[in-house]
């Protein structure tokens, strides 16, 4: 196959991508600040690097799976950053949910450094990532896709090629997150209203997932609420960030986003209440507290 890859950031999505690359036969180096995660990746047959620069020096394709724009800037351009060590012509695949304007800035800087770049935010959740079945919303020059195409196919069941211009992928992901955040908030409102009216939460959930009112987020996150399981698959903190991107871009475009603003305020309330590191379905706890109801498996906070 000949290509070597690196994955910077082995969180739930980055871990799935890195393991999928190994499964497809790509020699892959993983980078993470958590030594336990690096130990686990070595057990999977991966290589590990202590810094982004070390990983990038030996890679043709560098995937970036960190949390936000600030971390992206650090791992690419900061001390021991990947860009200074990467060979000219390497392809950087930016899988981070970031403001589209910032993605454009990063792409410009990478191109100026002699690198190829694909704006490639992802969706699908941890289970699909681990199965190599993510969805990628990708935009970038044809040459970057020519080089990275086999690696993208190894981690995703669907790669949408959205044109030549970085930033398009990030704009599409922003709209996806708008819908996801609003749907999670709606899930919390619907289930808690049902409980408040005297309905059994599991019965209600099982009915709604077969009806027109269902959504992917209701079915997926509603299960967490019904099970009383708030172990983070995607944390409240992430949606505070992502809905913040949506609303700030809306304000910049002078475009009204009342549903997004309301959803963001609910995620912020959940964060303030101490649920920031819990699963984003914990937004239901905000409704429960206001409505004076107990959620399944709940003994308070």
TrEMBL record:
<comment type="function">
    <text>Catalyzes oxidation of L-threonate to 2-oxo-tetronate. Can use either NAD(+) or NADP(+) as cosubstrate, with a preference for NAD(+).</text>
</comment>
<dbReference type="Pfam" id="PF03446">
    <property type="entry name" value="NAD_binding_2"/>
</dbReference>
<feature type="domain" description="3-hydroxyisobutyrate dehydrogenase-like NAD-binding">
    <location>
        <begin position="167"/>
        <end position="287"/>
    </location>
</feature>
<dbReference type="InterPro" id="IPR029154">
    <property type="entry name" value="HIBADH-like_NADP-bd"/>
</dbReference>
<dbReference type="InterPro" id="IPR008927">
    <property type="entry name" value="6-PGluconate_DH-like_C_sf"/>
</dbReference>
<dbReference type="InterPro" id="IPR050006">
    <property type="entry name" value="LtnD"/>
</dbReference>
<dbReference type="InterPro" id="IPR002204">
    <property type="entry name" value="3-OH-isobutyrate_DH-rel_CS"/>
</dbReference>
<comment type="similarity">
    <text>Belongs to the HIBADH-related family. L-threonate dehydrogenase subfamily.</text>
</comment>
<keyword id="KW-0119">Carbohydrate metabolism</keyword>
<dbReference type="InterPro" id="IPR036291">
    <property type="entry name" value="NAD(P)-bd_dom_sf"/>
</dbReference>
<keyword id="KW-0560">Oxidoreductase</keyword>
<dbReference type="Pfam" id="PF14833">
    <property type="entry name" value="NAD_binding_11"/>
</dbReference>
<dbReference type="GO" id="GO:0050661">
    <property type="term" value="F:NADP binding"/>
</dbReference>
<dbReference type="GO" id="GO:0016616">
    <property type="term" value="F:oxidoreductase activity, acting on the CH-OH group of donors, NAD or NADP as acceptor"/>
</dbReference>
<dbReference type="InterPro" id="IPR013328">
    <property type="entry name" value="6PGD_dom2"/>
</dbReference>
<feature type="active site">
    <location>
        <position position="173"/>
    </location>
</feature>
<dbReference type="GO" id="GO:0016054">
    <property type="term" value="P:organic acid catabolic process"/>
</dbReference>
<dbReference type="InterPro" id="IPR015815">
    <property type="entry name" value="HIBADH-related"/>
</dbReference>
<feature type="domain" description="6-phosphogluconate dehydrogenase NADP-binding">
    <location>
        <begin position="6"/>
        <end position="163"/>
    </location>
</feature>
<protein>
    <recommendedName>
        <fullName>L-threonate dehydrogenase</fullName>
        <ecNumber>1.1.1.411</ecNumber>
    </recommendedName>
</protein>
<dbReference type="InterPro" id="IPR006115">
    <property type="entry name" value="6PGDH_NADP-bd"/>
</dbReference>
<dbReference type="GO" id="GO:0051287">
    <property type="term" value="F:NAD binding"/>
</dbReference>
<keyword id="KW-0520">NAD</keyword>
<keyword id="KW-0521">NADP</keyword>
């Amino acid at each position: 196959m000949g290509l070597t890859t690196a994955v910077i950031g082995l969180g739930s999505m980055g871990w799935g991508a890195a393991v999928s690359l190994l499964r497809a036969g790509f020699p892959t180096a993983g980078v993470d600040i958590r030594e336990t995660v690096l130990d686990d990746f070595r057990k999977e047959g991966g290589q590990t690097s202590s810094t982004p620069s070390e990983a990038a020096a030996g890679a043709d394709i560098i995937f970036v799976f960190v949390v936000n724009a600030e971390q992206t800037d650090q791992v690419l351009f900061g001390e021991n950053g990947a860009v200074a060590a990467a060979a000219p012509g390497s392809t950087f695949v930016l899988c981070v949910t970031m403001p589209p304007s910032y993605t454009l800035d990063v792409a410009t800087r990478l191109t100026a450094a002699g690198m190829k770049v694909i704006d490639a935010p992802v969706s699908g959740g941890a289970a699909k990532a681990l199965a190599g079945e993510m969805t990628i919303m990708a935009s970038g020059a044809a040459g970057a896709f020519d080089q990275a195409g086999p690696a993208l196919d190894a981690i995703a069941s669907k790669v949408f090629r959205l044109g030549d211009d970085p930033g398009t992928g990030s704009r599409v992901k922003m709209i996806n997150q708008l819908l996801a955040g609003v749907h999670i908030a709606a899930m919390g409102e619907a289930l808690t209203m049902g409980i408040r009216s005297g309905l059994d939460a599991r019965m209600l959930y099982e009915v709604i997932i077969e009806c027109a009112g269902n959504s992917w987020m209701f079915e997926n996150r509603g299960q967490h609420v019904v099970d009383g399981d708030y172990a983070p698959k995607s944390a409240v903190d992430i949606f505070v960030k992502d809905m913040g991107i949506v609303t700030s871009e809306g304000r910049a475009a002078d475009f009204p986003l009342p549903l997004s603003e309301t959803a963001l305020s609910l995620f912020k309330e959940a964060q303030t209440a101490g649920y920031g590191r819990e699963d984003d379905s914990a937004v239901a706890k905000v409704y429960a507290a206001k409505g004076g109801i107990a959620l399944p498996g709940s003994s308070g906070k």
